[in-house]
Design goal:
By secondary structure, this protein is mainly beta. Helix content is about 0%, strand content about 55%.
């Protein structure tokens, strides 16, 4: 399984950006898809997740600003980020997990950098 993120870059405070993560296989196979981020010198933290049924959850620090969605036909999960602030600067990683015969497997993308700066 390969997860490929795209859409990062430089954006001004208050701006918007959309990240995409395309899986090499059928995303129906994944129980949960999500986005995490890691700023320099900090631990990786959860941003948002979405289940195979479409239920989304968000970290408090992005709630109301970010939106996670999935397009099963394109095997892609998106992260729409609005109202970006300096603290959103980080490498963003796509994550997926699946269960095979009761064993959980976790997959990560290579990450895409988001830099919020004026």
């Amino acid at each position: 399984v390969h997860l490929a993120e795209s859409g990062g870059g430089l954006v001004q405070p208050g701006g918007s950006m959309r990240l995409s993560c395309t899986a090499s296989g059928d995303i129906y196979a994944f129980t949960v898809l999500g986005w995490y981020r890691q700023a320099p010198g900090k631990q990786r933290e959860l941003v948002a997740t979405i289940t195979e049924g479409g239920t989304a959850e968000y970290a408090d620090y992005v709630k109301g600003r970010f939106n996670i969605s999935r397009d099963n036909a394109k095997d892609t999960v998106y992260l729409q980020m609005n109202g970006l602030i300096l603290e959103d600067t980080a490498a963003y990683f796509c994550h997926a997990n699946q269960y095979v015969l009761g064993t959980r497997f976790d997959y990560w993308g290579q990450g895409t950098q988001v830099t919020v700066a004026s």
